[in-house]
Structure formats: structure tokens, C-alpha cells
Amino acid sequence: MRKTVQSRRYPQPMTWLRALKETARAGLTVERRRLEPLVALRGAAGLAVVVGGALALFGPVVAVSSAFGAFQAAIATYQRTWRPRPLLALASGTSLAVSTFVGYLAAGSLPLFVLVLAAWTFASGLAWALGPTVGVIAASNVAIMLVTVTLPTSVATAAGHAAVIAVGGGVQALLVLLFPVRRWGAQRDALADALAAEADYARRLRHDPTAPFDPEPLMVARSAAAVTPWQARHRPAELHGARGVAERIRPVLASLADPAVGVPEEGPERDRCRELLGAAGQVLDAAAYAIRHGTPVRIPPGALGTLKTPDTLELLDGPARRASIRLAALLDDVVELAQGERGDGGEQRRETEDAAPHRDRPPLHRLVPGALRRVRKELRHGSPVLRHAVRASSVVCAGYLLGAALPLGHGYWAPMTSVMVMRPDFSQTYARSVARFGGTLVGVGVATAVVQTAHPDVLLSGALAVLCAFGVYLVMRTGYAAVNVGISAYVVFLLGMAGQEAGQTVPERVLLTLLGGVLAMVSYAVYPAWETPRLRHRLADWLKADGRYAAAVVDHYARPADPDSQEIRSSLLAARDARIAWQDALARAVHEPVRSRGLTRAATEAAEHALAQLGRSAMLLEAHLPEHGAVPVPAARALAEALRQDTERAARAVRERRTPQWDRVRAALAAWEAAEHEHPVLGGGAALLAEALEELTDALDDGRN
């Protein structure tokens, strides 16, 4: 084994006391760097315009409906997505208007309304299959619908309320168009984060030649790079092409530092390698800063000179020399692209999707068939999304009936709390229930005390609601508990403006909020969707994806005359997706009060390290793919096929809790050694692949023992 497994402390199972401590710390801590005052001011201004206009034209009751639409539309623009923000505001306002109108039509009959509420909540639960952005918007629509259906008095007024809710979303969308804040800011941050992550990687490689790299920043940057044709014509030049160069820098950095295919572990070559890596980190940091802020690139003196000094070519040879030359060329491209001086991506591009003018982001109407297929795919037993939809609809209906039966008035606080805190996984539901209760306790208590003490009039109540909304928008990305303080106070002031909750006291609202949170937690205990039992399946998926990627890379050494295979790129992206899916699953599983049978924490950590090394070894080989005129290596085809078959069989073995076997890979390597093939990169890379596979077997064996 080339490297001992680095120790990493996995979190202990979540407890109530620990949840309270962590939620209080994370939810109430305001990170100043994540505050966006101008964006918050724009959202609050749009809300003030909507509330003031509706109040002047139609009165306080209609103003309350319009305020909910504008408030929710602004919150939708904060969701993590690369879709245009105005589109999110319009979609949120329109869907809330439809929800309110449909809910009011059924509100006259309790059985009918409960049936509609169950169907609407079930659909919002299934919406999580389309991603967290759609899921959050859908859940928010159900929560606000529970409030807004109490405001109209007839079908005609219900239609009017729905219309002003939609108008509120339209106003927020218009403000985003008229007053954009930091245009292309999200895309700039995504690309800058990717370059900054590679700069950090270069610095870590100076001290640890086999340091791991988390590909998530590159995946986020890839997602952000997908644009519509109109966006492609108008995006800044520095956002075009730099991601493709950044993708190619990472394997070059790794191959330069790794002793198996780069420079020796000690000696003058290693010292020069450290200098090159340090200079690369400086250049990448400078490019990241320039792209993030839209300023010229300011590279520290001597950084580029270190990369291009003639001594480098004299001191290094073989693969290390080629890697240093290529690194200098790629960094030149990064600097030029960050300056906006060229849009061709620097080096001659490989025939991959990055060679296209832009990654296409299809319009919404083209996404409908795929969205329906994704939702239909979740309609199966054991699906976490389906279980979440069943839990949410059951809890919301039970909370609504209990709230109506209790002599507390305005019982919708209970189901509103439940639908806002429930998520498909246990850990988020648990933590958000605690945060929701704590935030609601403070927000409702303070706002109700103000209302009952100062008796604000309509205008003052509206102003206080707008002020609370500004606070919510300001801390939207810094803590769920802090956000709930503002949301709870906002609802109290707004409904007080319409005279809807004048008689309800703080204890009554707090009790209903606690009831909603308890129902959400109990539902997960009764009908769970634990991630822990599925960890082996996630690990098997990652193993299979890594095996395909490694096989695609090795196979190209056998046929260098062929064009660079699209299979390499597609299998690399699949391996990254599988790795992120594993990491997300593990992050959820460690907070669950269940144990994984046959997979201890030590085995989990060791298996994760082994698969990361497998993917890294394949990446090192990809960094030195042979040129089109290179001599083929026939034995590489047999090794590639052995990798593909053995990893597929091993993935099945991992799922079935059996020990993976690598008979074909061992036979292919034995044939390679018997034939005495000599290749400066493939020989060492193949040995690294075999070591990673053996390390995985050892890890899973230890887990069984």
C-alpha cells in the first residue's frame, strides 16, 4: 500500500442535545461574507411596492395576499440554481396563486379541503425528485396556501387574491430585471471557486504528492457553464472557455507531483516540482480573484517566470518534463481567459463537449418530459422521495385536523411548520425541526408582544412586516434558525394587519409550532427512509463508475491513432457523480440513529480512500494519454477489459456483502510483466490501479471482521 489511510473523524449519531447545540451554533451565526444587502434591499423594496399598492387600491386583506406572493417570489430567487432569477420569481408567484385559488375552492368542505391538501402536499413531496430548488418552492407554496385560503370570502374574491399574488411575483421578477445586482455573479463565483480549489490543490501537493482533490467545485462550475443561446452571446468573455482549461489543469498537477509518474520523492527534481506547484497556485489564485470581481489579473512577480525558466527543462525529463511544459501552457491560457483576451480555450481542444461553443441549457418547456420521467422513476417502493411525499401529505393533513380540533384558533400553524421543516432525509428534518421551533419561539414571541403592546395600525404593521422581510432576505444564506425568526415575525405582523390573529396568544402559536415539529419527527420514526442501509449500494455504484473510467483511459493506450474517446469524458463525469452521491449519502447516514450492517466506520473510511485512489490513478494515466502518432500498447486492451469486467463483478459483490475478487486484473498484469513491456507511464499507473483495488478488498474484509 503506497499510502496510509488518512484519519478523518466521522460524526457520531445525532442526539437531541447535539442537534440543539449544532443548530443553535449554525443557525444563529451570521456570516458577514455571505450577506448581500443590495439583494435584500431589492426584495424588500419590491415587497413594499406590492403591499403599498394593494393597500391603497384594495385594502388590507388583499394587501396581505399580495405580500405573501411577493415575499415568496423573492425567497425563490435565493435558491441555488443557474436559471434566470426573474423566471424563478414568476414561477413561484404563479404556482402560489394557483395553489391559493384551488385551495379556496375546496375550503368550504373540510373533507374536500383535506383531500386537496393531501394531493397538493404529495405532489410537492414528489417535486424533490426535480431537485432541492423545485422542492423548496413547492413546499413553500403548500405552507403559504394554508394561510392565504383563509383570507377570501367568495370565489370572485379568491380569484382576485390569486391574481394579486401572481402580480407580486411579477413585480419581484421585474425588479430583478431592472436592478440586477452583480450580473453573472453566481457563474463568476462558481468558476472562481473551481480555480481557487485547484490553487489549494497545487499547494497541498507540495507537501503531499498524493493529496486528494474533491471534484465538486469543478462539477458546480460545469453546471454553471450551461447557458441559453442568448446568454452565450451576452456573457462576459472571461466566463467562456476557462472551465475547460481548468479541467485539464488538475490531472497535470497530479501527474507532475506523483512519484509514480512524475518526479522522484526526493532530490533536486522534487524541489523544482515544489516551486512549480507553488507558482501554479499563485497564478490560479490571481485568476480566480480576477474572475470573481471582474478585475484585471495581477500575478505576483516571478510566478510565471518560475514556470518558464529554462532550468526546469534541463532538470526534469520524461513525463515530468512534458507535464511541466503543459502546465505552463495551460496557466497561460487561464490568465488570458481571465483577462477576457481570447475565447478559444487556449490549447487545441480535444473533441469533447467542451469544444462546443457553449453547453446548452434548454428552456423550461423542453424539460417537462424529462421531469415527468424523473418523477415517475421515484414512484417505487423504497424511494426516499416517494416516502417523503407520503410522510409529508400524512403529517400535513393530520396537523391540519388536529389544529382545527384544538381550541387554539388558526390551527394552520401546525401543518405549516411541518411542511416547511420536512425534507427527504432524516438529518435535515431533525435539525430544521429544532431550528424551526427555536426561531418561531423567538419571532412569534417578539412580534406578538409588539402587536399586543403597541397595537400598531395597518400602515405600521405593514412597515414592520417589510422590515422583517428585509431581515429574512439578508440572512437567507447564513442560518435556518435566524431566518425563521424573521419569517415568523413577518407572518404575525402581516396577519395582524388584516385583523386575522388578534386574539391568538404567544403560547398558542408556540404550542401549534411544537405540534407541527413533533409530527414531522414522529413521521420519520414511523415511516423512515434511512440512507445507512443503502451505503453499500452507493459504494458499489462508485466502484463501477470508477472502473469504467479507468478502463476507458487504459484502453486508449492500445489505440492512440483513434480520436480521443468521448467515453473517457462521459465516464469521468459519471464517476464524479457517483462520488458526490456517495459523499452526500455518507453525510446523511452519519446523523441517522441506525447502524450499517457489515460496514464499520473504519471500513467506510478505508473504502472511500481506496476508491478515491482508483479514480486518481486513472486521472494520472489520462494526463499522459499518448499522441495520435504514438506506438500502440496492445496489452493495454486486455488490461482495460479486465478492469471493466472485474469492477462490474466486484460492484455486485459489494452489494451482496461478498469480498471483491480481481482475478482478471491480476492475470492481465501478470501477462504484462511476463511480456516485459516498458512504458514510462502506463506501467506505473497500472500498478497504482491494482494497489487501489487491493486496498478496497482489504477495507471491506476488515469491515466484515
Shape: globular
- Helix content bin: over 70%
- Rg, Cα atoms, Å: 29 Å
Report the β-strand fraction as a percent range: under 5%
* DSSP summary: helix tally: 28
What does this structure look like?
The protein has 705 residues and is mainly alpha-helical. It folds into three domains: 314 residues, no CATH class; 174 residues, no CATH class; 171 residues, Methane Monooxygenase Hydroxylase, Chain G, domain 1. Helices cover 71% and strands 1% of the residues. It has 28 helices and two strands. It has a two-stranded parallel sheet with strand order 1-2. Helix 17 runs antiparallel to helix 22. It starts with 15 loop residues before the first helix and ends with a helix.
Summarize the topology.
Layout: H1 16-28, H2 37-57, H3 60-76, H4 85-107, H5 110-126, H6 132-148, H7 155-178, H8 185-207, H9 216-224, E1 226-227, H10 229-234, H11 242-257, H12 268-293, H13 303-308, H14 310-315, H15 318-338, E2 359-360, H16 364-377, H17 384-405, H18 413-421, H19 426-454, H20 458-474, H21 480-497, H22 506-526, H23 535-558, H24 566-589, H25 601-623, H26 635-655, H27 663-674, H28 682-704
Parallel strand pairs: 1-2
